[in-house]
Amino acid sequence: MSYNLNKIKKSFSSIIISLLISPLFGFQSVTALEPKGIAKDYGIDLQNPVTDVAKDVYSMHAFVTIIMALITLLVLGLLIWVCYRYSAKKNNKPSKTVHNTLVEILWTAIPVLILVVIAIPSFKLLYKQDVIPEPDLTIKAIGYQWYWGYEYPDNGNFSYEAFMVQSKDELEEDKPYKRMLTTDTKVVVPVNKIIRMQVTAADVLHSWAIPAFGVKTDAVPGRLNETWFKAENIGIYYGMCSELCGVNHQSMPIEIHVVTQEDFENWVEEAKTKYASKNNLLANN
């Protein structure tokens, strides 16, 4: 009896302590910048969307998947029914009919209607992706073999490069390390702001892709492609070059930090000093 009472007391004490300290841990988890746009171990679904376009892309994906599943089940059901209904045992005197006008009209018209149902929301989504709203910020991404370069023309026109970090020991700042995804520098954007990305390449074809943003744009030498996103959640999001570009194609990750407007402005001021001095040094050499 006393053992049970002591056990209850310990449990009650643990609950009280947890309730008292949980707000502190909750505050830390909210204020700390954590990786969000990243694949999960044993995951079977797409990454959680954090932009309006990505949400529409994922909804379209689910919509088409449902249609595909229904068509597959229908065809499977028809095959099973035909095998049963028209087997030699059930159909000793098979029909010699070779044409059926109604059936031929149906198997032509129904697929056309299905394609129209898919095409209408698809065209709307393509238009939404292609037409860029009035941007709050413009960033230029340049693909090289095998790293990315970035320019901020609206914030002093400073530029820098982002190389993949090979190990945690190479990190020069306090941030999470994700193998083959973390870069020595980072792209920083403010939350809930429309970001226009101008994408090009200096050598061969590359592709700038962030799954959680629903963004994937080819980087073509001599051509400037544009895309946009508006991240709704603060956090760290990762992407990769999605175009085979040579032997080290896997070494072109993309790391984006979505922060508050205040943190973004502070980072810009630091970046102007940090990267402007490097750019001037390279120009003088």
How many domains is the backbone divided into?
2
Can you tell me the CATH topology of the largest domain? Immunoglobulin-like
Main sheet? 6 strands, mixed
CATH class of the largest domain: Mainly Beta
How would you portray this structure in words?
With 285 residues, this protein is α/β, with parallel strands linked by helices. The chain folds into two domains: 52-90 and 100-130, no CATH class; 137-284, Immunoglobulin-like, CATH 2.60.40.420. 41% of the residues lie in helices and 22% in strands. It contains four helices and eleven strands, in the order αβααββββββββββα. The strands form two sheets. Strands 1, 5, 7, 8, 10 and 11 form a six-stranded mixed β-sheet that branches. β2 (137-144) and β3 (147-152) form a beta hairpin. The longest helix is centred in the first third of the chain and has 34 residues, at 52-85. The protein is elongated. The model is unreliable at 1-31 (pLDDT under 50).
